């Protein structure tokens, strides 16, 4: 595995000059003035290097964190038998967004150096027969809540990406995956009304993050019941929130910002003026382009938990780009997003699987949001 990570040292070459222009002490609070740097953009060269992550991940069976309940000896199966689609990338949800990464890069850059090899792995994994096994697993008595809701959210994002891939193989994989996505939609609609309290953490179970990706899918597919369930629950959980304690962030293992993930869902579900008033109460200085946060520091990228902070920097960036793309009044916050993204992208050269099996997806999503912002200015 080490050789392909070394290959990624060429990643984000177009951003290197910009990275040098950022504040020299990246631990300084970003509420102070930041030297203007270009918003990073995804190029073919970068895409070729980012593609190496899913290429060597989506069919790497071991090491593997299965994370499921065994009711009897017959449930002790190897990953490829238990999850014939999503057995790679260390765990199920990372395999899902590893597939999403591959699809996203192939759609945007069909002339990738490894395009045929990457496509072959996707089409080999996402088949009707394999998806049927995934559904059977999720319908087993002890695993109906498997990957709720982080993995569910990424599954719907993968489905959305496939739905919008206008190729023969894209349409085929979208059709094959759809029964699993339909099951996830049903699970969301059943689960959300029963969830009495928001989960406000910076890891997988964060409620706002999962609802954000699921909301985008509901809008994409016009899933009225899902959209209604998410909108109602987001308003119930977050509409009265004030003065989010962003100075408490990050916790040691965060890869999501509890405060900013709320912003990401509420900008989607609230009418514009209501949202602006809500944000003025929730994070009062954001309208002035001020956000008193530090770029997260990682002390050991071989530690699977500590490297989460790289993901936090990337997810913060995608939230701020998305906000500025939707509402121009928040454009000053893009400086903060640029600083987070430019600081963190070079860290993907880390020669270790602990971050490599998932951080590429976060980088691609952040760059995608950066690109959407650039299109809207």
From TrEMBL:
It comes from the Bacteria. InterPro entries: DUF2891 (IPR021365). This is DUF2891 domain-containing protein. It comes from Nonlabens marinus S1-08.
